[in-house]
Backbone:
């Protein structure tokens, strides 16, 4: 198979879809790999690194989209990229379609087969291609939140760990999954007073068993959430419903109950955000204020640590990329129900139910799409 990887063009996105190590694996298996010139520079990989791995360097993304049978990216294709997709081509990347009707419409019109990293599953019910970036984003969230909390950036001017005689920051993490667990660990490591909210009693028992001495847990009822948010210096939104729009767990009205200069970090912004007042920002202009509350809502947080993120993502995506290349997407998805769960769009049909529900669009069963 001819596999192509263009340079990411979303603002402040420095990751790359294929690392030299992944290119080497594909080339060793007999596939051809073409990489847009400079695609890996943001992650610290030169064109010569790719050439040494057996890939060819091409000058433009246009050539990638025109020639490649499978396009491997990191972020959702931007409008100019979506226009270049074609029928029969496979796109393998993050999509996050539920909050993005314009992208969904363009992908349906392209006729391409689009497999989303974020909905591929594993036998334990996890999301193996989302997990590494969730780990990175979770660990980044307290770091960027602490920066936003500084007075010069509009925050309350509270130090995460306090000092002797002064209480530490109060941090509330909504969601005890991968993002929330990593966020809580880092925030607690910075010395903050951390509480994780979740609705799964088994998950909270696990967190209490493993991290009981590090941070606290509480059941995420509306009343408890409202009480803790009002007391918090920082709230980290870490809620995920696979493939679907994130639920709004903090309303605009609740902002008036919060401490002036408190910080909301919305890690769920890729799926529309879990705070009513959230809207996507970029690393170039990451924060904004609503009713005295500072919001950090960067939609590609892991892009800030591009080298770590690219390597972590590549470790997870490589086996699936190789299966798609070795077998073709139909056979690979037919043989692996977890990869099939990643199928979101095929030949003008939407194939992921949660996206259809979010956007009020008809859905074809993924199994049926294998025969379409």
Residues:
């Amino acid at each position: 198979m001819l596999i192509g990887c263009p340079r990411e063009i979303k603002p402040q996105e420095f990751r790359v879809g294929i690392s030299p190590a992944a290119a080497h694996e594909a080339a060793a298996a007999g596939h051809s790999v073409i990489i847009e010139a400079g695609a890996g520079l943001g992650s610290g990989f030169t064109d010569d690194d790719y050439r040494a791995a057996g890939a060819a360097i091409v000058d433009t993304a246009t050539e990638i989209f025109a020639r490649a049978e499978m396009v491997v990216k990191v972020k959702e294709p931007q409008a100019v990229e979506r226009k270049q997709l074609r029928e029969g081509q496979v796109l393998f990347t993050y999509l996050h379609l539920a909050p993005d009707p314009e992208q969904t419409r363009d992908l349906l019109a392209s006729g391409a087969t689009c497999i989303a990293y974020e909905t591929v599953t594993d036998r334990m019910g996890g999301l193996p291609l989302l997990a590494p970036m969730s780990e990175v984003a979770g660990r980044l969230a307290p770091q960027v939140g602490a920066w936003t909390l500084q007075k010069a950036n509009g925050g309350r001017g509270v130090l995460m760990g306090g000092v002797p005689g002064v209480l530490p920051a109060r941090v509330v993490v909504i969601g005890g999954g991968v993002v929330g667990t990593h966020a809580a660990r880092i925030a607690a490591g910075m010395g903050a007073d951390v509480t994780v909210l979740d609705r799964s009693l088994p998950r909270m028992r696990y967190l209490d068993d493993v991290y009981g001495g590090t941070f606290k847990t509480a059941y995420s009822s509306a009343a408890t959430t409202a009480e803790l948010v009002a007391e918090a210096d920082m709230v980290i939104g870490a809620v995920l419903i696979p493939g679907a729009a994130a639920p709004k767990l903090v309303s605009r009205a609740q902002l008036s109950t919060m401490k002036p200069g408190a910080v909301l970090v919305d890690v769920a912004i890729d799926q529309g955000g879990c705070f009513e007042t959230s809207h996507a920002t970029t690393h170039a202009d990451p924060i904004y204020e609503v009713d005295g509350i500072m919001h950090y809502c960067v939609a590609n947080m892991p892009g800030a640590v591009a080298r770590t993120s690219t390597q972590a993502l590549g470790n997870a995506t490589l086996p699936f990329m190789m299966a798609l290349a070795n077998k073709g997407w139909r056979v690979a998805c037919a043989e692996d129900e977890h990869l099939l769960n990643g199928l979101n769009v095929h030949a003008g049909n939407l194939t992921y139910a949660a996206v259809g529900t979010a956007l009020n669009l008809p859905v074809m069963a993924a199994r049926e799409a294998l025969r379409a």
